[in-house]
């Protein structure tokens, strides 16, 4: 009997080793990083396969925590976080990878998961509506299944302190996944529990009553992007009172967004980047202009006048990000040699963000605000951080819903400085009982990309349980 058990154990163990070996990334074209890196697929269900990339920490990975990263959208790939934000290397404007001095992999073993299904290299092998349906709850359940399969591949990671991080719509993904893990842990043995210790959310949505449009309207007024008269109209028609008018409010919000047309909504102080040719002129042949549904008026005119543009089809849908030239990263991840090195099967057209996913995704009215009292009660450490020049998910929306939680302030609002910098204020921080909120000064939506030093300092301090 013992010999049969031993044979069974060896077969299972060999299967796990084979699966891991299949995912080893030996090298990536034009990418000089040589650390321990894995890329492959995690089984979510019989029809859903989520692509992941996993970096072991630079040094002493055995004693470093495990951190999952989720980009937002919904419909945007977490490989954007890996390539542009806090991975081992960052893609520059010329399309070359440069070593990232402030990569988060210095302090943690990092998983980058492409979620939900059909984002990036992830896929759903089904056409059934029941399989394609995606909302906040199904995404969290799928992410939990992906995580459990990850632990099957990497059983040594199961014993590590675990954190979930993300940005933007990750403000929905992250805390709801954390809640799912809390519930999962209640139904399994001690050895099977996931050692969830904390969550980090950057420029994230949580409460639709405050985040995005409501906060944006306050932000654009206080930053002198709309007139005082427009603000008074907004107060009259859009605030819930006796003069509230749904139709007039919607028209007014559209008018306000038209007023800030041309502003980089992810960082109002940052230049609006669009593709240019070698002569420095607009590269109107770029698919950035072909597919960008948000495009500014002058770009829409260019698009209309270009007679050689082909109509996009359902399999070639791109949600181009305002004021971002995604040409280089999309060109890179669509290279056959790059996809082969990352074990992508079947070959797929990779986009930073996909309308295909975004358009069928159902955002639930309750957002993720309901999870926070539960997570705090469970002792899950929480860091909410926000670049203070973000227009699309401004810091003031986060401040409002955090205030509504009614948490006791343990340390009042104060400055913080990365690595003891006496010359520059990095941002501001307030510590509540169960939650810390901080801002990063002078940057917007993608803080790890634009303020890597400050973001890494904040990240490492939080993982270590230290104030900053």
Short summary:
By secondary structure, the chain is α/β, with parallel strands linked by helices. It is 36% helix and 16% strand.
What does the model show?
The chain has 468 residues and is an alpha/beta fold. 36% of the residues lie in helices and 16% in strands. It is built from 17 helices and 15 strands. The protein has helices at residues 2-23, 79-85, 129-132, 136-153, 170-186, 213-222, 228-238, 246-259, 287-291, 297-305, 327-333, 336-341, 355-360, 371-377, 395-404, 447-450, 452-463; strands spanning 37-43, 48-55, 66-70, 89-91, 97-99, 109-113, 123-124, 134-135, 162-167, 196-202, 361-362, 381-387, 409-416, 427-432, 435-440. Strands 1, 2, 3, 6, 7, 9, 10, 12, 13, 14 and 15 form an 11-stranded mixed beta sheet that branches. Helix 4 (136-153) packs across helix 5 (170-186) and helix 5 (170-186) packs across helix 14 (371-377). The longest helix has 22 residues, at 2-23.
Which short descriptors sum up this protein?
468 residues; alpha/beta; 11-stranded mixed sheet; two-stranded antiparallel sheet; 36% helix
| Cα distance spanning the termini | 57 Å
Residues in helix, %: 25-40%
Shape: globular
List the uncertain runs. Answer: 8-17, 293-319
Structural class by helix and strand composition: alpha/beta
The biggest beta sheet reads:
11 strands, mixed
Tally the helices. Answer: 17
pLDDT averaged residue by residue: 88
Instruction: Bin the strand percentage.
Output: 15-25%
């Amino acid at each position: 009997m013992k010999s049969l058990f031993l044979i069974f154990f060896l077969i299972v163990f060999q299967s796990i080793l084979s699966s891991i070996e299949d995912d080893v990334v030996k090298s990536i074209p034009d990418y000089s990083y040589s650390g321990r890196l894995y890329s492959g697929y995690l089984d979510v269900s019989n029809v859903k396969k989520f692509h992941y990339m996993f970096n072991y920490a630079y040094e002493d990975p055995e004693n470093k925590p495990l951190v999952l990263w989720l980009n937002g959208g919904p419909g945007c790939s977490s490989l954007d976080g890996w390539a542009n934000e806090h991975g081992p290397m960052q893609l520059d404007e010329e399309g070359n990878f440069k070593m990232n001095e402030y990569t988060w992999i210095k302090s943690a073993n990092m998983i980058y998961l492409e979620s939900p299904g059909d984002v990036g290299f992830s896929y759903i092998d089904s056409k059934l509506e029941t399989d394609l349906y995606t909302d906040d709850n199904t995404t969290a359940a799928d992410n939990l299944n992906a995580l459990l399969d990850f632990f099957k591949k990497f059983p040594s990671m199961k014993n590590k302190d675990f954190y979930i991080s993300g940005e933007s719509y990750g403000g929905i993904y992250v805390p709801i996944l954390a809640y799912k893990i809390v519930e999962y842990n209640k139904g399994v043995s001690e050895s099977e529990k996931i050692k969830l210790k904390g969550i980090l959310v950057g420029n994230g949505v949580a409460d639709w009553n405050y985040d995005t449009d409501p906060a944006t309207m306050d932000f654009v007024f206080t930053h002198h992007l709309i007139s005082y008269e427009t603000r008074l109209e907004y107060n009259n028609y859009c605030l819930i009172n006796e003069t509230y008018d749904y139709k007039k409010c919607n028209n007014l919000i559209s008018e306000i967004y038209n007023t800030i047309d041309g502003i980089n909504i992810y960082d109002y102080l940052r230049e609006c980047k669009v593709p240019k040719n070698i002569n420095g002129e607009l590269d109107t042949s770029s698919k950035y202009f072909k597919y960008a549904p948000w495009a500014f008026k002058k770009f829409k005119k260019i698009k209309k006048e270009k007679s050689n543009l082909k109509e996009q089809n359902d399999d070639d849908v791109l949600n181009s990000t305002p004021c971002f030239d995604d040409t280089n990263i999309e060109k890179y991840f669509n290279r056959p040699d790059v996809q082969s090195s990352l074990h992508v099967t079947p070959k797929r057209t990779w986009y930073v963000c996909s309308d295909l996913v975004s358009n069928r995704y159902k955002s639930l009215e309750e957002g993720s605000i309901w999870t926070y009292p539960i997570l705090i009660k469970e002792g899950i450490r929480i860091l909410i951080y926000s670049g203070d020049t973000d227009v699309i998910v401004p810091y003031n929306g986060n401040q409002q819903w955090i205030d509504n939680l009614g948490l006791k302030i343990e340390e009042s609002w104060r400055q913080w400085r990365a690595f003891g910098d006496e010359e520059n204020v990095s941002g501001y921080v307030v510590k509540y009982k169960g939650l810390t909120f901080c801002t990063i000064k002078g940057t917007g939506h993608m803080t790890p990309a634009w303020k890597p030093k400050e973001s890494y300092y904040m990240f490492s301090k939080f993982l270590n349980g230290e104030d900053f």
